[in-house]
Design a protein that fits this description.
single chain; about 230 residues; mainly alpha; 13 helices
């Protein structure tokens, strides 16, 4: 049963494989340039496993670790995962011991796959989702470790390599824009981010923009839901 589910899940994860290997290598190289070994790359990719927050954590490590600030920043950067989790409650029901890992591994790309991919006939849905999640994380861990080892062996200028994450966000933004006719949430997020960037500056705009976005989405929730129907 597990083997059959693994074979069914793998083809769905190939697009994530190409993206995560490249992004993971970029993360690993930057981590190596800051003096951290491949063990750091492996452990952060296993236990944090949040691409955007892992890149942000590099600056947190460089500035000196502050637990409360790190916790709050993680919540702000990954607030969207709260909504991912809520929307997957019904899908994860009945998955038993696999459920905690399915929750841990719910990244942007894995969420997209689990929402759209269905297990073929005769394949257990729980194991099918489990292997999609596991394979995606394996790709990310592998890319991170490879990038770190590469960065430790070859010395080169890493300036601009972290733009890989920005490029990923642009792709996700375009994909979300094309996938729906309701652009209110996107416009709220974009407008609030630009306004806060201009008002508070590059170093301090994330938290106020997230507060404004959450407030506006709550205020206009009924209008947003009516546009989705």
């Amino acid at each position: 049963m597990k083997t059959k589910a693994f074979r069914a899940a793998f083809p769905f994860t190939v697009p994530v494989l190409t993206g995560y290997i490249v992004l993971g290598i970029a993360y690993g190289i930057i981590l190596s340039s800051k003096g951290y070994s491949f063990l750091w790359a492996a452990f952060t990719s296993i236990f944090i496993y949040a691409g955007s927050m892992q890149f942000v954590s590099l600056s947190l490590l460089a500035a000196g670790f502050h637990p409360l600030y790190a916790c709050f920043m993680t919540l702000m950067v990954n607030t969207r995962h709260l909504f991912y989790g809520i929307s997957m409650l019904s899908k994860f029901r009945g998955t038993g011991k696999k459920k905690p890992y399915l929750i841990l591994g719910l990244t942007d790309e894995t969420f997209s796959l689990l929402c759209s991919a269905k297990a073929p006939e005769g394949v257990d849905q729980g194991w099918f989702m489990f292997f999609i999640t596991l394979l995606d994380q394996i790709y990310w861990v592998t890319g991170s470790v490879l990038g770190n080892l590469l960065g430790s062996l070859i010395s080169f200028n890493t300036k601009g390599i972290d733009f890989a994450l920005t490029a990923l966000f642009i792709v996700i933004f375009i994909n979300q824009w094309k996938s729906t006719n309701n652009h209110i949430p996107v416009l709220i997020g974009l407008s609030a981010s630009i306004a806060c960037r201009l008002i508070f500056g590059a170093s301090n705009f994330i938290i106020p923009s997230m507060v404004i976005i959450l407030t506006l989405v709550t205020v206009f929730q009924k209008k947003i839901e009516s546009r989705n129907t």
